Amino acid sequence: MIPFISQYRLRDILLTRFHPRNVVPPDTSVLGMALFASEAGPARHGTSRVKKVVLVGAVPPLMLKTKGNPNGLPLEVFDGIRNSVVTDRSQFWLDLSMSFYGYNRPGAKISEGVRQAFWRQGVLAGFPASYFCVKAFSETDQTDDLKKFDVPTLIIHGDDDQIVPIQAAALASSQLVKGATLKIYKAASHGLATTPKGELNNDLLALVRS
Question: pLDDT tens track of the chain, all 210 residues?
């Protein structure tokens, strides 16, 4: 059986062999989306070669509801995800596509092609990754990492994100990252790279060119 390696452990393995100074060109703009936003953050490995950072629909600082994070989601939500993955992982991904792209909202134009592509990506992740990543993205507190950002940072989030609610995510992280710019997409879902992709592409290009 192939052991599961979390994204955080994999990051450390890769960066031990490939130091950022060797793999990241100078003046690079780094984009992190959803649960991978932590990998875009410059806090762990410095900002000497990073010019700008963009966080899109990002999980940080913390998704889990705690005494210090009252706007987070209760543990029962994440236990439900784990249970769904164990019970019927294939159906879980197909069902999740509805809320992921906001297709469950009245008047939404549903793309079955997008739903099937989402399902395919999900099942390719495999069982261990699908199950264990829940703890990683929900319980990893990245508050201190965000406070270390010292490059221009653009935070983009949909105010109708049903996967990573904006209150405990972008609204909180924008207060932790010094000088961050927060851009909220009205009535937008978590699937920002697919649904309002034209707006997102324009914003990213404008940032890179600025």
Answer: 334 444 444 445 444 544 555 444 555 555 556 555 555 555 555 666 678 888 999 999 999 999 999 999 999 999 999 999 999 999 999 999 999 999 999 999 999 999 999 999 999 998 999 999 999 999 999 999 899 888 889 999 999 999 999 999 999 999 999 999 999 999 999 999 999 999 999 999 898 888
Euclidean distance between the first and the last CA atom of the chain, given in angstroms as a whole number: 48
Lateral strand order in the sheet of 153-158 = 28-33, 50-56, 153-158, 181-185
Helices 127-139/75-100 angle, 10° precision: 110
Angstrom distance (rounded) from CA 55 to CA 36: 9
Please name the residues in contact with 43: beta carbons below 8 A apart, sequence gap of 6 or more. 144, 145, 146, 147, 148, 149
| Three-state SS at 206 | helix
